Target: inositol-3-phosphate synthase
Amino acid sequence: MTSRSPHNQPSSRARRDLHISSGSSVASVSSAYSVTSSFRHHQNAPWSPPTPSTPKPMLAVDSTHTPKTRGSVGIMIVGLGGANGTTLLAGILANRLNSQWRGPQGQPMQPNYYGCITQLKQKGKFGGVGFKDKIQGLADASMAAVGGWDIRPTKVGDALLAHQILDYDLVRQLKEEMNKVKIFRGVYDPRFIGPSQHSTATHVLSNDEASNDSEALKCLRADIRYFKWRNGVVGHTTVIWSASVEPNCDLLENIHSARDLLEAIETHEERRGGPLPPSLLYATAALLEGCSFVNGGSQNTLSCPGLADLARQQVGVYCLGTDFKAGQTKFKTAAVEYLRTMGLAPRVIASSNHLGNNDMKNLDTAKAASSAKLRVKQDIFAPWEEDIDHKVSIMFTPEINDDKRDFVEYTSHAFLGQTHTMVTYTRASDSVLCVPLMIDAAVWCDFFAGRSWPYEKVAKALAYLFKVPEGVAKGVDPGFFRQMHELELQSMAAHEAKTSKSKDATVKKRVRIRPEEKTTEWAIPHDARIICAGLACVDMQLNHATGGDGGEHIETFAGEKSIGGGSVSMACKTLARLCHGPPLDDEYMQVTPPVVHSVIPLCKIGNDDTGNKLLSLLKNCGGCRNVDTTYTKIARQKDPSARTALAVLPIYQDGRRGCFFDAASNSTFSARELVQMIGSLSSGSTGPMLDYSQMTNDEIDDYRERLEVLTPDYGAFLFGYPHLLPQIQGEALAQVLLEARSIMIDGGIIALDLNGVPEGTFPIREGSIRSLSDLRNDAVIGMALEHVDILHLNEDELCLLTGCEVVGTAESELEDEYAIAMAVNLFLNAGVGVVAVTRGSKGSFVSCNNEERFRRTPMLPNSWVDCTARGSALQLPPGTIINSNGAGDSYTSGLLVASMLRHTGMTVPIRNEDGRDEEISPKSQIPPLKGKLASGKKRMTPYTLYMRENYVTLKQQCNDDKKAIFTKCHEMWENEADEVKSMYERKALEENEADAENEISNRVIDDMEALDSTQQLTSPSHDIEENPRNLYMTNRSLNLESAVLFASLVAAYHIDMSTRDRKHIDMLQLLERSMVFPTGLEEI
Model:
């Protein structure tokens, strides 16, 4: 058997060391903090006619504009180096760059999308043809990410030149850029390809890398993940088979289910009775990775019922084919439909076609593959069940290359037994006919996937693309115009279903453009992901409700709104809308990078409409599109009888809320199920979970070691509401937290958010609180406490769990805080790292454990050791409508993010008067801190001197409010004349040279450096390196007071109805308001 092994993948094996990658003409530069993102498209100075000087447009319609984009959709081509793959990539690049070139006769040429109905607008008085302006939400193919596999090592640009299909002047301009595209090693089995291809098949999976189908499948899945990651694909990805036609495989029809399919791939070839075709492995890999698969070849891949079953198990994933209907066959289906519409009776259709491309060369030397091709061509009219004698002859003629010729004679019975004969002759490039169908297939799959349109309906809608629609589309009407009518019906239905959910019928643009250089001062190292697990439901909110005090009278509410509820949904929403900087101009399809690279919800939902709604709410809960619901979608298939939880929540006019809750699947959500989901994260698998109980310890260790390179970086695990999850309590909860710890960087950070603590949890004697022994033996959380790094609970839950008494009056504030501190110490003594208690209008209380406990969790900030912070409640403007639902979840998520943030040491933008960001220029930038002076004391800055001299006055003006002091000083410094700033610069230089700073000054500097350095304003300086890195600040964390205020601000944005539904929250703004001194300034 041939080798099937992983392609050469630096992404999978050396992901953290990868700093520069290029694919689909997209290069991304990353660091441990993802400080900078650049997407460059180079242009080789294409010819363009002279034009008058005009203002530069801001969008990519200008040929001199180089778009910097994430992939709108992903297109992965099996056979990327072939005629179709190279022509497709060249077409997308030419349109993206708006290339200009000379044709064969020297005539000026420009790119277009003729043949791509998803990219064309309607024409003429009555419309028709194009869908671009007819249906909102169709992706822009010019921004698609393109990649794939090939068994030949030829670079894509070189292959395009060798194929001699497109004009040389265009190829010359695109060749260098195309050669940068990575080609993955292909799965190769000589039994499924003609002898003419064997000698060039050198870019293949080796036996050492993957010795069987199962290993090859894992490699293909890793390739797909890497492709989407490297190209930043924001839409749906489609894998298209455009390689040589394979012989038909008889085994496929006996694979009846998804389980049978996966078992067949795991089974040895001799045991299952023969080899499986490579196309089946590509299709399976695509479906398991949440991508669609399109069989553009003639082989019977889609005759495998297991593929259809696997596609049905996921939402918005499709398996389509067979054989693109590009030229002669497309016209046949239109011509025969025309003859039948005239009332004639077609009886004989005799055709021949010849061309000299590589696909025809393969068919010429592989009779079994040739039979597969002829089967498709001859079966196109079978669904009509009419007596049509359809004959096809194919010939390989190398001389004419890709310039296909075909001749067809149509003979029909006419009036009174007479004969009607019609002849057609077509000449066109085979690839130029086929590529538009490939682009449309990917764009349509993205369109329907974004609307979760049913698989069967999508297969019928896209039947027009294929010679013989197979799989779930088998037997559809072969008439071309009837198929186009079905496409219009389904696409319009999907479009209307999407727009009807929103009154303004707005549709998000799928193509996003990043800023050329995005620098951020605070970031989460390693682009670490956050896992959100626990209770999930759909919250049906009854807004502005009356009542809530009991009674039987009728109450009112002002409208209903369904949102994602439970800890998982609320945490995902909070994390998914935190971004670096303000949201960019949507008119230009821009997106600001998220603070959290990816958010992974793990919860149990049912296969019902409520479950579909919850998945959609999770996936679209933030503007950064960084919530990955793949693992929850896969897990939901395991329990077909499960129902999705629903909560009806009256939100009362005073901000309180009621709750009527049907736990549904949460009642049966077990620790075993959650551990399996976590295990799938550790292996990067979305397929069936491995049963470790059937493996030896050595086998488990070996398996985890081999797959460790495929695992993304996870930095935190947030689990919510154990009291409402009866199957994940006590020892089971502890086991879940241990499993989560095992897959995270340095053990990560584990956060536990409590809710639903019942009254009477523990019988308390009056005047005493619970003992440490009692707390450790708590049936729900006791055994898990030592594994918890951040614990959140509200004041009422603290009282229920510990027995502490909080009176809640103004006179009892000191006694209440003492009681809370004593109760919190119980949890610290039980092994919790950080305990956060939210107290509603009284703010929050956060206390941290000692250094020994913090050593067990290296990811927690060392500066928090033995610290306590009391956060005041933020005062919202009078008249603000609030909704407290999820306030604790948002606070916990904010505190978790604050604990993970580290300073990158980089400079940041400053704000203009109009609120926009402007990069700090070297001439106006404060020199970076270079470290300590020779005496060991730290350098003085002009701004520090300015604050020291004005502090006493400001302290009196601001009534000792440290935040107000800093803000006022900041404003004063900003308004000072350049001469004054220059004076302070000279004074700072003199003090640094004299090494005369006293200990008080040093303490002030420490305080200032712990602040967000965006508060440092500009002062004149010269010869400063561009974007210097402040080594002193690098990797510093937020102090606890700042972290608590940050979490409170995040919660405030959540409860304020005017900001609750914002898709983006600028973390920079939150940090500007959160930064406080770690020590007081009274000493000055």
Observations:
- The two ends are 80 Å apart (CA to CA).
- The chain has a mean pLDDT of 77.
- The longest strand covers residues 345-355.
- Residues 430-449 form the longest helix (20 residues).
